[in-house]
Write a structure and sequence with these properties.
This protein is of the alpha+beta class.
Amino acid sequence: MKRFVMALVSLGTAVGILLGGTHVANASPSYDQEVAATARNLIGSPFKWGGTTPKGFDASGYTQYVYKHSAVKMSLPRTSADQYKTGTAVKKENLKQGDLVFFKTDGKKVSFSGIYLGKNQFVGATSKGVRIQSLTTKYWKDAYAGAKRVLK
């Protein structure tokens, strides 16, 4: 999708130049949109314990990969627990796409991270692969530990 948008922007610029027009800068997607788009592009990737690539992700390997390989180019710590120590805490009602959401899937400590997409949905690498999940399902609601904003 990103390549398609870039091609359209380039085509629009070329047509404008050929027609003697001046090029007006187009608004580019924000970092939160870039992170969400990168996260969505990886939906369907398989789960792999300790995985950090599209060949197989675990939860924190997925969030780490998305932030590093999106336009943000941001390095996150390797584990969900360490990722939870970064950024600024965000209340659930103030979540924005691109925020990191964290869960205590073992009931004790932060052990799962995902990327918020909006409308109470997040994407994460579950045992069934990278999938969109809802914060409102009982499992995720009960395991919710908090959220962090690492994007400015």
